[in-house]
UniProtKB/TrEMBL annotation:
Phylogenetic placement of the source organism: Bacteria, Bacillati, Actinomycetota, Actinomycetes, Kitasatosporales
Protein name: ABC transporter substrate-binding protein
One Pfam family here: SBP_bac_5
Organism field: Streptomyces sporangiiformans
Keywords: Signal
SUPFAM superfamilies on file: Periplasmic binding protein-like II (SSF53850)
Amino acid sequence: MRLPARLVPLSAVAAASALLTGCFSGAASDGSAEGGEKRIRVAMMLPPRSGLSPLSDDAFKLSRWSTAETLVRLDADGDAEPALATKWQQRGRTWTFEIRDGVTFHDGTKLTAEAVVRSLTAAATAAPKPRILDGVDLTVRAEGDSVAVTTATEDPLVPQRLSSPQLSILAAKAYAGKTVSPVGAGTGPFELTKVNGTASASLDRYDDYWGGKAKSPGVDVKFVPDGTARAAALRSGEADIVEAVPVSQAALLHEDQITEVPMPRTNTLYLNTEDGPFKDASLRAAAREAIDAKPIVKGVYEGRADVAEGLLGPALPWAADLRSPVRRAKAGAPDGQTITIGTFTDRAELPEVAQTLQQRLQKAGFKVKLDVREYANIESDALAGEFDAFILSRATVLDSGDPAAYLFSDFGSKGSFNISQLSDGTVDAALEKATETKTGDARRKAVIEAEAAVLATDAAVPMLHERVIQGDAAGVVDVAHDPRERELITTDTYVK
């Protein structure tokens, strides 16, 4: 049984704190650097899974550290605005982007149209491709100081796609080896100077940054998968910024140290539609009817989440207004069918969610086994369809600021993150329509129609929408609180 937040054993807190001892040994104990300026000490949740390659989810770390940049960034509404590209225009299947002048990479080489072509081509021809390019055939060529991006069919979302951190622009040196290395190869205000495997990373201020000198001299990062240890680092003063504070730890921190933001992240139960018991739509319906998210929100998340009405949550307020009731299959009788549910330990709440679902589904007539591991050790099995069900905390607009890309990736028959192994003609047609519709109200309506098509299959049971809880020490100034988890350290961030 879970202990109330304020009754966590002191021995556990002490042990967690010990995990952080010496983790920021690259700086003085108070985080100071020479000259009296303080480096920023950050405790992050997930360690790199692909050597910080921008072609993987590790790209979002590079973005949050402000070391790698893209042609386009997104504003608060998800609309595209200039970054390494200053302007763009569309002619049919081709978008032309004018490249910003006066930008240098961290190795001193100049940002050119050819450099942009190299980076984008590497992403477009990677195997597998970054998920933002799922279903997109993209070619790139230089045209003077501009870059022409051409897609197989007209794509209204090209600028938003190019905002994905997985399409960061790096120097030629990044592509010299068998893997893409961002060390010393970005264009941002901080240069990645050292990576210590899955333990830590260091960044120094890049004084020739095109956007102006950063206020902090550097950033020291420690990867701390244990949520209790991350919170303990903030309490003990060993970290200045802590991402993803577990809800169980939030009550142990001073209220001025935490910021809670509704985020486009949904805790969803994915059901394997290709193999096993949940190939039967009536058993998927039985699982869906057995799940009650309200006790999970109240108990596991201590009220710091929102019960899901669909795959898209309150971070996209337009979704609720467009949503209509979904017609689903009738529930069948489980009759003791054995199912295995997988999830991971990196998000502290998910093992508890799994235990709660185990009880609910067993009560409904299933026999339930749990397989809980670290994410790095379970992702490949989940994508290969090795589980009957999988619990995932999934960002729904992480890549492009537009949920159509997430829906295609997770539920399209050709999607690269299709844990449900779903292959449904109605869903594919709805996803294609949403992808092809121009940005604006019409696209939003098409997105909700695609969501309804997915929900009608019961391939995914959305349970709740999470809120990001970030911990910041009292001396931290102007750190980003980004619901999309793209920004964290900016040029304005520093520690008093």
